[in-house]
Write a structure and sequence with these properties.
Helices cover about 30% and strands about 15% of the residues. The protein is of the alpha+beta class. A hairpin with a 2-residue loop joins strand 19 and strand 20. The N terminus is likely disordered.
Length: about 650
Amino acid sequence: MNHQPSSSVAHLWMVLEYDGKLPKGATIAQVILASDKTSLSQFRGDKAAWPVYLTIGNIEKATRHCPRMHGAILLGYLPATKLDCFSKATRSVAGYRLFHECMWRLLQPLVAAGKHGVEMVCADGRVRRVHPILAAYVADHPEQCLITCTKESFCPKCRFHQDSRGEPLASLLRDEDHTLTIVATYTRKGLCPVYRPFWADLPYSDIFAAITPDILHQLHKGVFHDHLLKWCTEIAGENEIDERYRTMLNYPGLHHFSQGISLVSQWTGTEHCEMQQVFMGVLAGAVQPTVIHAACVFHTHTSQLLDALESALREFHNHKHIFVDLGVRNDFNIPKLHAMAHYVASIKSSTNKKDYVAQMTKWLARQESVDQFVAYLDWRLERIVDDAEVASAGDIDDESGEGGTSNADVSVDKQPPTPGDTPLSHVLAAHPPFQALTVDSIAQTFGTVNFFAALTQYLGHAVPNPPSQPQLSVSHWDCFDAYRRLSIPYPRLCPVHMLKLMDQIHAVPYIPPSGRSAGSQGRFDMVLVQTERNINAHTQGMVLEDLQVAQVRLIFDLPMHLRMAGQPFHLALIEWFNPFRGRDTLSQLHAVSRSYAGQAPHTEVIPISRIMGSCHLIPKFGTHIDRTWRPDFIFDTCKTFYLNPWIDMHSFYKFKNT
């Protein structure tokens, strides 16, 4: 789940319009503030800055999150003083009051502008009366408490008692009017006495509703890394967890923790996400089943399935006792764990609960109008679906070493669209990097001993041959051109925001060291392939129906004398895995194993249009990992693998119902 403040721009407008707080024709600029006290020096910890940034929710999310687009401005710096002039007993309260006084001065222009509006020239050239209204404040837990005048041992959004934060109990939410009445002198119920909170005069805003979920500090660095990972590592053993991460299979964009995770001292948000993408597979077999049930809470929710999110959180509370029973935790009085209870309410708090059907009907009508206008612009500017390839040109290298690949240099193999999805285009480099490869050189370079037999079978069965023409046959002297990479644009999924537009599938042979070059390991990615007339009861009616895992060993073109009109000539040599088995009752993961024909892997030549996309497999480690396993040879030593549905957002959204 990734709650974005901008998703409620239209809802905020409707709330104020239906309550009669804004005049007819008013335009809202949804103000989003963010602040974070930052250390400026790693050698001297006493140097710090406290910047405050401002952006608006009317700007598209992807634009706001891209630093080079300058979607946010620096509003100012807050004093990062230690307040040594105050006594230890009053220093904390003085810090609260100083923060609010400075923020009040910074945001003073928003008071009149929010109440009466300001005439501004919009992007379409029209002049509108715009009301800038504070809608969201992005901050970590200490600053959330500072903003809401709440002590750090209490919740900044509700009146939950500080000693009961580990329990799934309901509590009254904090009310801005009630808080303003008592905050100046009241020190109980977790409040700090602040004479004039900066948000007291801001119109049409509720500071407690504006506090958004802090995914980085509350989930990634907080509950997951500081608590759940620590508990599971203590149960399974540090060496066991490290060895499992070291043995994990590679995947594009997935960091390989070659030294394990216990020695890493400085973590980034991206590394936390990459660690979580394989976490359930790492835990499988290493910890008790109840621990698996408790850990699943962080891998089962999406922004669309709010009921599933609440259910997953209840599931964690039902099984959290295992950590106490195993002696790794005494209590769960953790502020960041309690904050997760407010996530669903934060997402749902987009309406004033009045005339819900009328509000949502108007909102949907406006969304349809926007979609129609975008479709008109696409038609007018001739922006077709294949522009995704142009937009991601940085992802498609010219594999011949001559620089980037232009749109005119891309070889495209079209595939018929599937219902509800964008038509997929299989993109290859214009100039194959491996040229004039013989059958013997392919076997030696790519390790594909069955290439000749598989291609002969393909030409004999898959390619129809008219009776008047001789049968096509391949010889050992035929030459083939091969590619390092196949790129497939991801289907456009409205609920999923992905920075990567292209799914890249590699078939790169091993390059031995030579001179100053250290060489490189071979890379043959796993893919999901459309099967033909194979019925699997374990996947029937699911997204995985008619799909089977395979490993791409070679991406190549047929030579001219073996091509036929109307038949594909961009082909791939794959090694099959057996059909999916039933899901594991504990981890709910589908298991697969490599398919063999005798002693050799079961190989087949297929058109690249049958490749639906890449996938990631996690070895089935068992209760204790075999220390002889290595990532480069894992397919020769490990017999069973799990299909990983958490490897990226597209896979998670695609497989969430499997």
